[in-house]
Every structure is written in structure tokens, then in C-alpha cells.
Amino acid sequence: MNDTFLKACRGEAVDYTPVWIMRQAGRYMPEYRAVRGDVDFLTLCKTPELAAKVSLQPVDILGVDAAILFSDILIPVEAMGMGLHFSESKGPVFSEPIRSRAQFEKLIVPVPEDELSFVGETIKILRRELKVPLIGFSGAPFTLATYMIEGGGSKNFLYTKKMMYQNGALYKHLMEKITDTVTAYLRAQIRAGAQCVQIFDTWAGVLGPEDFKAYALPYVKTVIAALQGEGVPIIYFVNGCAGLLKEIKTSGAQVIGVDWKIDMAEAVRKVGKDYSVQGNLDPCALFMGQKGLAKKIQSVLKKGAKAKGHIFNLGHGVLPETPVENVKFLVDKVHELSRR
Amino acid sequence: MNDTFLKACRGEAVDYTPVWIMRQAGRYMPEYRAVRGDVDFLTLCKTPELAAKVSLQPVDILGVDAAILFSDILIPVEAMGMGLHFSESKGPVFSEPIRSRAQFEKLIVPVPEDELSFVGETIKILRRELKVPLIGFSGAPFTLATYMIEGGGSKNFLYTKKMMYQNGALYKHLMEKITDTVTAYLRAQIRAGAQCVQIFDTWAGVLGPEDFKAYALPYVKTVIAALQGEGVPIIYFVNGCAGLLKEIKTSGAQVIGVDWKIDMAEAVRKVGKDYSVQGNLDPCALFMGQKGLAKKIQSVLKKGAKAKGHIFNLGHGVLPETPVENVKFLVDKVHELSRR
User: Fold this and answer.
1) How many Å apart are CA A148 and CA A76, to the nearest integer?
2) From the CA of A108, how many Å to the nearest CA of chain B?
3) Residue B282 contacts A, CB cutoff 8 Å
């Protein structure tokens, strides 16, 4: 068992900097596309054998130091009772977004062992196969709320902010129901075998710090506090964290995920000595030549080394157009350059 | 002549905090929609009498402390020789994006007094009518380059970053041609009567600090250095500035525009005592009730007061759905709460 990743999460001494890659199981990889060719995306997420198969691919092919459950952040939202489909042009679409109390009332808090049992089964298969730690994950309450309220992706998140500002009671009730869902979902993942969980707050970066503190962070704190007794490290990743790190680091998470739009040295300074950091190479750097890419990797490693612990990652998910050989080069280079 | 805005740009004592609003002439205002009902967007930009008319509307209706030329950041790009149209669903579209040396070679550096003479004429009309200062503007070189290379808006700016990383010589030549265009364009605006210019870097926030410093900032510095002799204050606004302020403040601009995704107090600390700041209320705050809105305004004013000079503004453009009465309330409240 390679536990370098878990040691870095806890800030313990490691022989080299561990690395995994957000969306490491995905369309950039021909082996993934081969599996995906036969099934649609949601079926892939919900079929344990297939979800496990694609989760394992990057471990075998790239040699990353952690696997992550293959799934989608909207899977538990669908289980709350919202009809979900994926459109080629628009991405995820909820045909009936939550805008009223009546719509909210119809939402349930799913029991993970029932409505989401395929997730636990996937995790069990993975734990039997893996020689590296398995990361479970969920969307953060705010990010899930934006999809539920907007009905999909958004530019200005106006419906979400309108509910926050104009109908605070409904917003709070909705966030509490999502928080309960996320907590139970992550707890079930841990109890099924996930050795770490990451909470993805893809959209919290559209909030200013005061609003983040009032409307997003308290719910993340509730989730994390409820999971502390489970004994696994928690990673909290906010895309667009540059202006929010002072607040983010109070979340209770042991590891703070950092996107690429802030200098890693500044992020490490802001996070301080009590938390490990994860990040933060621009996913587009994987389109550089290997000489330029190596320089960028070295820069992130050098700055990350000042943190309590450092897990190398991209600052956001790997892009579908990315050349696999550069991802492989990245993983090898992180190991080579960081070996003590 | 109300010169409060210009005084604040220069960091001189003012009786109250001046305020204007990005996109203050726009679709949220019925008087604008009435003009726009008869003409398409590009015709409106290019017809001096009409462009001047809508530029004046927010000054008359809201009582803002500055007017801004009504135009679009892509107007000079079209004059470089790129066919531009606006699509209802996709926004601006260039049918032939710049991806090759041959395409680049066909671009010209337009002579503002010839190809863009309508801009100078609009400015001259405005200066005759206005009792507040007139702001001219341009997109920053990087932001204009993204539209030219991507062919419109983008999610990951992959074509732009690919050119940066894989074809550095072409990227540099393109940026230099855009820089020459922006410099001549802004100089012409100032010589026609603009009393301040703002450089909008809408997309530079997708670059990490190292890339911003290498691929965007040098060209902005060149523009600003070339304009310093013109004797008007320059505002440099980067959307997504939170991780970039250390670099941004070296641009040479007298005023640093700040979006809402960073605490204004932190932004003022980072900018330091040598530059004025502009910003930074979340445009969505205009959907709050007036009590909540007043509280947010007060918070921005209090933090902005620590800067060399503070110009109140939103952290990005006002949204089309915004209630006009709240924008009017905002302007009055900024004046009332800040009056010394």
C-alpha cells in the first residue's frame, strides 16, 4: 500500500510529493473513451463495475498516488428527486429548477445505502483492487445549490443570489437539506471504504468574502464537523479561492485545494502552517512543451514545499483535449523532481 | 463642472466619494432600450448622436459622477479587419479567428481618425453636453487577443493559451499589433476630449500570476507608458484580480479597478498608498432590499476610504435584469453616506 498521499494530507514526512489529477479518469484518455463509447455518462456513473474500471485506469496508466471515485457531483442531487440529463451543448440540465417553497418541499434527503447504493458498491470493488488510497467526493452545498436553483450552469448565478438575498429562509432550508444530503453521502462513502474525501466547491468563487462567509462556508463547516469522527482527511477545494483563503482555511478541512489563479507561494502563506495544500498547476500548462511544463512543475513544487504538506494536482480538472503523454510526463516529473 | 471623480483618481481631497457604474448605459434602463429598439447594437456604437445620447442617460437619470463613452471593446478589433457580429445566444462572434501567421498578417493597425472616426465624434458631442468628466476606454491587449484567437467568448481559453505556449512568436507579434492599436485608439480618445481612460482586462483573471506577468502585463504597461504624456488618469481593471494585484499595481495606471471577489480592505492593503482604487460591489447586490444594499455600500465605502483615493463602482458591469430604482438608490446612498 502506497500511503504517501495520506501522509501528505496529514502533514507527515514523505519520500516524494504525491500527485493525483482532478478528472484523471476522463475523456482525454483513450481507455476511458473506449468504455464510454458503449454507455452514456450517467449509466457509467451508476454501474459499479464500469465506474470502478475507469477509476482504476489513471492509477495503472499514469501511476498517480491516489484514485478518486468516478462519479458526478450531481448524482446525489438527482437522488434528492431532481430530474437530471446531460446536454451536449449545455452540460447538466435540471428541467425543474428549485425556485419556490413547494418545489423545495418535494426534495428528499436520500439514504445513500438505498438510493445511492451503487456508489458504495463501486468503492468496495475499488478497495479490493487498489494499492493506493481511494478518495471519495461530493460537491459542496453551495455548488450543488447553484445547479439546483439555476437549473444547470450559469454565468452570473442570478437566481441563486436572488434567493440568497430575497428569500433567505427558503435559501437556508434548501442549504440545510443539501447539507444533510452531502453529510450522509460522504459518511456512507467513508464507511464503504473511502480513505479521504474531497469537497468540490466549483462555484463558491463567485461570492465575495462576506457572502462566502454568510451563505456558503457555514454549511461546509457543518458537513466537515459531522465527519471529523470518521478519521479520514478531508480536502476542501474552492475554484476561485484567491480572495477567500482566509475564510476557507477555517472550514475544518485538513487539506486546502488551491486553483491556479493565485501564486502557490501566496496561497501557502495565507493557508499557514496548520493545513496541507493541494494544487495548483494551470490545466492548460499540459499543452506546453515538456521543457516549459517541467519548469512550471518545479515552480509549484518549490512553493508547495513550504506548506505543512503538499499534494500536487492541477488547479482544476484536466481538459478533454489534453495529450495523455503530457499527463504521464507530469506524474513522473513530480515524482522525480520531489524525491528526497 | 463636477470634478470629484478626477480628484479621486488623483488621490486629492473630495467632498464625497464619486460613483459611476460599469455598463451604466445599458439594457437595464428603459430609456436605453427605447433607443436600442430602433437600431442594432453595432449601429448604435457607430452613430455618434445615438451613442452620445445613451452615454448621457445615466448621468441625467442616476446622477453619477462620470460618463463613459458608449461603445464595445471589440469595435477597434473589427477595425483591425476582423468580421464581427453579435449572436443572441453566443454574444460576439468573429467568424475567422486568428490561428495562423497568414491570418495575423492580414490584420491592420487602424488609424482611429479614419476607421474609428465615429468615436472621436461621439466624444466631441459628449464634451459639449457633459457637466461631469468623460471616461474613454479600450479592452486590454490580452482580453482583445482572447476574442480574436478564440473567435468569441470561451470557457477555458485553450486556443489562446495554446498560442501563448506553443507559438510564442506569433502570440507576441499579435499582442504587439493589438498593443499598437489600443495605444493609438486611446490616444485618439484623449485628444478628442476623454478626461480619463479605463483599460478593461475582462479575461486576464484566467491567467496565473506568472503567466499574467509574462503574457498580459507587459503589453498593458506599454500602452500606459505611451499615454502618460497625455496627462489624464488611467484606470486598469482586471476582472478576477484577487491573485494578481501585486502584479497589476505595477502597470503604471493611477487607479486600480477591483472586482467583488476579494475583500475591499485586502485589495486596498495590497494596492498600497500609491494608487487609487475603484470598486467593488457585487453587481448582484443590486437585487437586495434597500436595507441590505445600504449595508453592503457602507462596508465598501468604509474599506475604500483607506485607499489613496476611492471611486465607488460595481465589481463588474451592471446586469440587464437590474431594477433601475436600486441603481438610483445606490448612487444617492454612496453620496449620502460618504459626504464629509
Assistant:
1) 11
2) 29
3) yes
Residues of A in contact with B158 (CB under 8 A): 284, 287, 319, 321
Domain that holds residue A136: 4-260
A267-296 in b/e form (b: 16+ CB < 10 A) is bbebbeeebbbbbbbbbbbbbbeeeebbeb
Residue A311 lies in a domain: no
Low-confidence ranges of chain B (pLDDT < 50): none
Task: Give the model's pLDDT for residue A28.
Answer: 98
- Angle between helix B117-129 and helix B48-62 axes, rounded to 10 deg: 40
- The answer to whether residue A332 is domain-embedded is no
Q: What is the pLDDT of residue A87?
A: 86
Long-range CB pairs of B186-189, under 8 A, 24+ apart, other chains included:
B186/B136, B186/B138, B186/B223, B186/B227, B187/B112, B187/B226, B187/B227, B187/B230, B188/B112, B188/B113, B188/B116, B188/B119, B188/B120, B189/B69, B189/B112, B189/B119, B189/B120, B189/B123, B189/B136, B189/B137, B189/B138
ipTM surpasses 0.90: yes
The Cα–Cα gap between A102 and A99 comes to 9
- Catalytic: A27? yes
Contact (CB<8Å) B261/A282: no
User: What CATH number did the domain enclosing A137 receive?
Assistant: 3.20.20.210
CB contact under 8 A, B210 and A285: no
**Which tens digit of pLDDT belongs to each residue from B71-130?**
999 999 999 999 999 988 889 999 999 999 999 999 999 999 999 999 999 999 999 999
A275: in domain: no
Please tell me if residue B162 touches chain A, with a CB cutoff of 8 Å: yes
Q: Give pLDDT tens digits for A181-233.
A: 999 999 999 999 999 999 999 999 999 999 999 999 999 999 999 999 999 99
- Nearest beta carbon to residue B284 from set A161, A263, A315: A161
The count of structural domains within chain B is 1
Give the whole-angstrom CA distance, residue B158 versus residue A316: 14
What is the pLDDT, as a whole number, of residue A90? 83
pTM over 0.90: yes
Q: Give a yes or no: residue A252 inside a domain.
A: yes
Q: Which residues of A touch B213 (CB under 8 A)?
A: none
- Quick check: is A36 catalytic? yes
